[in-house]
Amino acid sequence: MDPAHFSQDDLRRAFGTFLTGVTVVTTRDDTGAPRGMTANSFTSVSLDPPLVLVCIGKRSSNIGSFQEAGSFAVNILGREQTGVATLFASRGADRFAGVDCRQAATGAPILDDCLSWFDCLLHQRVDAGDHLILIGEVQDFGVNFSEPLGFCRGSFISLSQ
Predict the structure, then answer these.
(1) 3-class secondary-structure state, position 74
(2) Are 156 and 150 in contact (CB under 8 A)?
(3) Number of domains in the chain
(4) Contacts of 19 (CB under 8 A, 6+ apart)
(5) Residues in Cβ contact with 149 at an 8 Å cutoff, skipping those fewer than 6 apart
(6) Where is the signal peptide (predicted)?
(7) Could you tell me if residue 8 is inside a domain?
(8) What pLDDT was estimated at residue 13?
């Protein structure tokens, strides 16, 4: 099948029908400054060893930091964190201004009040089209059993359990 017969916008809309969670992926740049971005391409990969995967768009203003980082954290957002998701998806904003966070053992920022977080050492980087895939080995994690924040068809949604 020739992919030239469909548009990227149509494909994006089709991908957007898949309900996902919302994460903020964080790291530190070579100066030690925190960097982060909203991402919904996240999945668990393996329990042994404990691996997770996240996709970073190559057009992200933070791509350089993630290309060089030896560690990162994935912060899964809860229902009350749509403002955090929007802030970390914005361009030009000081994404960490007004957001409470702490440093994980690897040095990556962990956002307070997130649903779950995973502190990871880089296991592998994979170049994949217009994205960089980061596979991380989980060093530590935390869980908060509040309601998750979802994303579908270009909008945030909340789920009741």
Answers:
(1) strand
(2) yes
(3) 1
(4) 150, 151, 152, 157
(5) 21, 22, 77, 78, 79, 80, 81, 82, 85, 115, 156, 157, 158
(6) none
(7) no
(8) 84
Q: What are the pLDDT digits (tens) for 36-48?
A: 999 989 999 999 9
Distance (Å, rounded) from C-alpha 77 to C-alpha 82?
Answer: 8
Residue 62: which of 41, 33, 85, 22 has the closest Cα? 33
How much is the pTM? 0.90
| Assigned domain for 101 exists | yes
Residue 2 lies in a domain: no
- Neighbouring CB atoms inside 10 A of 65's CB total 22
Q: Phi, psi (5° rounding) for residue 31? A: -95, -5
pLDDT tens digits, 60-117 = 988 999 999 999 999 999 999 999 999 999 887 789 988 999 999 999 999 999 999 9
| Domain CATH for 45 | 2.30.110.10
Mean pLDDT across the chain, nearest whole number? 91
